[in-house]
Amino acid sequence: MRKAMKAGFGLTALAGVVLFTGAQQATSQGNVCAPRNELVSQLGFQFNENQKALGLVGEQVVMEVFASEKGSWTILTTDINGQSCIVAAGEGWDDTYARNVGEGV
């Protein structure tokens, strides 16, 4: 349990660095990668981000967008082995349009 918690804190620190270095740097430097469930858990725990969008990139990669109500966002890609990488992250997410369309406004 403690080992898992230490690993979680390490992922949290790495994800935080990626989030605060900006999307452009996150895509041009080494990506933060870990099993999907660990990254998703940390995005929810530390940044209160939830999945907002999902799409396929070819036949072997899934792309997901996670965002919080406060506007932070993260894009993950996940391969067929369940390994996910943070490929971009930033601030200022606004899904007002998506909410309005979903509500029929």
Description:
- With 105 residues, this protein is an alpha+beta fold.
- 43% of the residues lie in helices and 32% in strands.
- It has four helices and five strands.
- The protein has helices spanning 2-21, 23-28, 36-47, 96-102, and strands at residues 32-35, 50-57, 61-67, 73-79, 83-90.
- A five-stranded antiparallel sheet has the order 1-5-4-3-2.
- α1 crosses α3 (36-47).
- The radius of gyration is 14 Å and the shape is globular.
- The model is unreliable at 1-29 (pLDDT under 50).
Percentage beta strand:
25-35%
- Choose one word for the global shape: globular
Q: Which structural class should the secondary elements be placed in? A: alpha+beta
Quickly count the helices: 4
Q: Helix coverage percent of residues?
A: 40-55%
Spatial strand sequence of the major β-sheet: 1-5-4-3-2
**Computed Rg:** 14 Å
- Average of per-residue pLDDT values: 77
SSE arrangement, N to C: HHEHEEEEH
Distance between the termini: 47 Å
Low-confidence stretches: 1-29
The largest pleated sheet is described as: 5 strands, antiparallel
Short account of what is shown:
This protein has 105 residues and is an alpha+beta fold. The chain has helices at residues 2-21, 23-28, 36-47, 96-102; strands at 32-35, 50-57, 61-67, 73-79, 83-90. Helix 1 (2-21) packs across helix 3.
Provide tags for this entry.
single chain, 105 residues, alpha+beta, 4 helices
